Amino acid sequence: MKIYEGKENWYYYEFNSNIKNAKIIFKDSNGNQIPNQGIDAENITKTAWFFSDYSYVTDDPFIESKPIININSSGGEFYNNVEINVKILSNSEITEMYYYINDEKFTLNSINEKIIYGINLDIGDKFTFKVVAINNIGKTESEKIIFYKDEYEVLEKIGAFNELRIYQIMVPTYIDGIVGGYGTGYGPSHHNGDLEGVINALDYIEDLGMNAIWMTPIFHSKSGELKGQSTGYYADDYYNVDPKFGSNEKLKELITKAHNKGIYIFLDGVFGHHGSNKIDGVKDGAKQWYGSEVIYPDSLAYFEDVAEYWIKEYEIDGWRLDQAYQLFQNKKIIGNIFVKKWKIYLKKEKIVVKSGGH
Asked: How far apart are CA 62 and CA 90, in angstroms?
């Protein structure tokens, strides 16, 4: 795989004809992956031409044609205001370029322009956005994009939330409560930590003045040769504790004993990736909902059920969501949307657990 240097500071990548799906990942000078989960390139059939901000077009910019319009957003929810970056590419003289917000027309002053809008809208309002560019070859209109204004949920810094003193436990590397554990480690280490070890440490944690425990993932994980699978971050069953760490009954014992000491228990929800088996093929031409598409209704419903299960059946006190900001789809980070809908669901169902005398 290679990105080639083209004309006039452009770079391009050509896909082999036998590639059905692809994901393009860039890294900056610091080694950071941009964007976090890469660019889905399922619809690129031959060549992609990239801008410096990692957006791309699939029409050759050196063939005289109608203008190419690139917009950095696909719409959806926004909060205070929304920032829309518009790029127009044309190798023929542009005679006119403008955009619409709803039915009101505005002139674009540059082929690379930032538009900020929405600050004066009320919560619940929506607006449409469309760009038009005309050159000597013809006219191009972007698809109409719809934006919705939503609101942040303001959390007042009062009560138990503001008084939490959280003790984090990486369960695999913590205390070996049942001597002679599993021994599988990450890298050169050898893990033996388990829930029994956490139970044994409750007096110590209480003496430190802690009133909450956040444990790294304890769900049943995919077995295999990778030592990293002993860390809990490759879950394939979100309804059962991995036997390396104990059992559902042992977790219940831990929660009960922690609550008796006035200590909250938080579980780690790793929903951005998992260790289940790969889906092989598509049945009857139906689209399989997998990969990064976490905001499909069925996906969200599944994680809502997981959250409710552990709160109702085992009386955990809360969730920590692993790398929620990295949930990426449709060229935008949707982790905040996922988390908000997830939280609204729990609030709507009035799932509240008061434990440990708090």
From this structure: 9
How many other C-beta atoms can be found within 10 angstroms of the C-beta atom of residue 275?
20
Q: Where are the beta strands (DSSP E) in 54-203?
A: 56-57, 68-71, 76-78, 82-89, 94-101, 104-107, 112-117, 126-135, 139-141, 145-149, 166-169
Q: Are residues 29 and 82 in the same domain?
A: no
The percent of the chain in helix, strand and coil, each rounded to the nearest 5, is 20, 30, 50
Provide the pLDDT for residue 354: 42
The closest of 264, 266, 269 to 321, measured between CA atoms, is: 269
Q: Are residues 228 and 208 in the same domain?
A: yes
Mean pLDDT of 60-65: 76
Six-digit token pair at 6? 């083209």
- With 0-12 / 13-18 / 19 or more C-beta atoms within 10 angstroms meaning exposed / middle / buried, residue 54 is middle
The enclosing domain of 203 has a CATH number of 3.20.20.80
Quote the mean pLDDT of the chain. 77
User: Per-residue pLDDT averaged across 197-201, rounded?
Assistant: 96
Q: From CA 136, how far away is CA 138, in angstroms rounded?
A: 6
- Give the ranges where the chain is alpha helix by DSSP (H): 159-162, 195-200, 202-207, 248-260, 297-314, 335-348
Instruction: Give the chain's domain count.
Output: 3
User: How many helices (H) and strands (E) would you count in the chain?
Assistant: 6, 23
Report residue 168 CA to chain centroid gap: 22
pLDDT at 323 over 60: yes
